[in-house]
Amino acid sequence: MGRIRTVTREELHKMTQHIIIGGGPAATNAVETIRSIDGGQSQITLISDEPAHSRMALPYWLAGNIPEQHTHTGDDAYFERLKVETRFGQRVASVDPAGRVVKLAGGDTLSFDNLLIATGASPVQPPISGTDLPGVQPMWSLEHTRRVLEAAAGMESPRVVLVGAGFIGFIVLNAMFKRGWTLAVVEREAQILPRMLDSDAARIVQSWLDSQGVAVHAGTSVQEISAAADGSKIVRLENGEEIAADIVIIATGIQANLDLIAGAGIETDEAILVNDQMQTNFAHVYAAGDVAQGPVKFSDRREVHAIQPTAVDHGRVAGANMAGQEVHYSGSLLMNVVDVCGLQSASFGNWDDASAEATTISNPAGRVYRKLLWTGDQLTGAIFCGRANDMGMLTDVGMVKGILQTQTPLGPWKEYLQENPFDIRRAYIAAGVAQKLVSTTLLGRPSQPRGYRFQDAQPELPANPAHAVYVGTKS
Question: 208: part of which helix (H) or strand (E)?
Fold first, then answer.
């Protein structure tokens, strides 16, 4: 366990006391941002019931692409280098914002000057009989991943039923598909990925899954999960069908972890409400990541964007403000990108805005779908679906994301894209989007790579001369 150096009582009294609750990307990016500003002239205590890790790396471990250690985002040496006191394996029982103390489940009480709540979210447990059976579980934590791999050990192709066909569920589905497991999906909505794709794109994805041998049961719910005589499970659907399974994964949604602030006076809606500095209604209490409901692009509302890029941004903005700088966040962009068993799907921004003007290309037989949504001459949403080559090896997706992030009016290039929706590059360059992205920073200075590498391995990233085409071309 990493420990800060021993300091005198007088030094400790003078040092700003930061407490960060959580061990995900919001927490670790806040830590690094604070240290990049204060150089170690504060006390940071990191409290998390799990080791610091990236939840988005768990499917790579599940798929067998990486070992468990590669999901971790910090080790003892890393936290010692950053002078962070870590309390892993511990939980916060309650928060007192007015008194500036947190109470741990073990009884300890810690005081703070600034508090960051980055406790993330937890899976929703649906009211289905049998969800407490062995082999029936979410796939959300390190322990969940470990249990799935243990349950599948020794089976050539375990039968898995995924309950819920949303973004998170399909990331898990893709990992199990890479293992060659026998897969079935149940979704109570009429289509799969209902909060990511429109019905036309969803039909293309479902057709693809059919071709890959993944059974999809949409428009029906799980009525009951029961144990079979041989130790397997029977998943009974409301439409009368039954599916045999060795493992059942529950992926019916998530909810923000708010228990520890119950009665604390911190304002919440779906999650903890924060302003553009990640502050709650207590100026010295911040929230970030899946537990925070904050500013977003293309709307005055505050929303929860439970994705890693938003968590990273939140953590960096919170960390800068906790360290005494004044940094304002322009808002997160709603985005979901997922590989569905070899078919790429993505949606950005206001992808479901019925009032927007739409430019749509649809080729179900070729499994190609592209929809651009316009408000005036501004691109405000998009949906993509297709194999990697049909999506421009994902370059088109990245360029549309850049247009949306910079909220660049495209002027005459709107008409060009409506006529040539597969030539994003020309409009992207001509409208100066790349130049805007290069000159935009989150904290007012160039970003730095994270300070932690597994076993201190350094990536080799040679500069690609083709980048000059995008950044250096004059409009």
Answer: helix 199-211
Residue 4 CA, distance from chain mean position: 30
The CB density around residue 415, as the number of other CB atoms within 10 Å, is 12
Q: Which residues of 425-443 are buried (b: 16+ CB within 10 A; e: fewer)?
A: eebbbbbebbbebeeeeeb
Q: What pairs with residue 96 in β-bridges?
A: 101
Query: In tens digits, what is the pLDDT along the chain, a chain of 475 residues?
Result: 344 444 455 544 468 999 999 999 999 999 999 999 999 999 999 999 999 999 999 999 999 999 999 999 999 999 999 999 999 999 999 999 999 999 999 999 999 999 999 999 999 999 999 999 999 999 999 999 999 999 999 999 999 999 999 999 999 999 999 999 999 999 999 999 999 999 999 999 999 999 999 999 999 999 999 999 999 999 999 999 999 999 999 999 999 999 999 999 999 999 999 999 999 999 999 999 999 999 999 999 999 999 999 999 999 999 999 999 999 999 999 999 999 999 999 999 999 999 999 999 999 999 999 999 999 999 999 999 999 877 766 689 999 999 999 999 999 999 999 999 999 999 999 999 999 998 899 999 887 888 888 887 777 767 667 666 555 544 4
What pTM was estimated for this model as a whole?
0.92
Rounded Cα distance, 158 and 154, in Å: 9
* C-alpha torsion sign, points 442, 447, 452, 454: positive
CATH numbers and ranges of domains, the chain: 9-122+255-322 (3.50.50.60), 136-252 (3.50.50.60), 342-472 (3.30.390.30)
